[in-house]
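Study this fold:
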Amino acid sequence: MSWKIVYYNDNVQKAVSEWPIGIRAYYARITERMTAFGPNLGMPFTRSMGDGLFEIRARGKEGIGRAFFCTVVDQKIVILHAFIKKSQKTPQKELRIARKRMEDVKKRW
């Protein structure tokens, strides 16, 4: 059985669709692998952020994109939050958004 990618809401899906083409293409390759082999691809594709939160590490010549995700029952990968990275460290604001949404997903699903 393969994994399924779902988005927390339409805004998250829209954010990814607005990424520059190179970053979006790399993201698409990573998510294709995730649906086939599961979410734990490891570096350089995915990384654990702790407590069940993970990140997709997409890069292109235009920069770096990050999408946070968690997994839920029935082999679903929920993309919680996506943004274009502008600094070396992941901003705490972006992590807070993803963690809050993950809590919401765990309660609802």
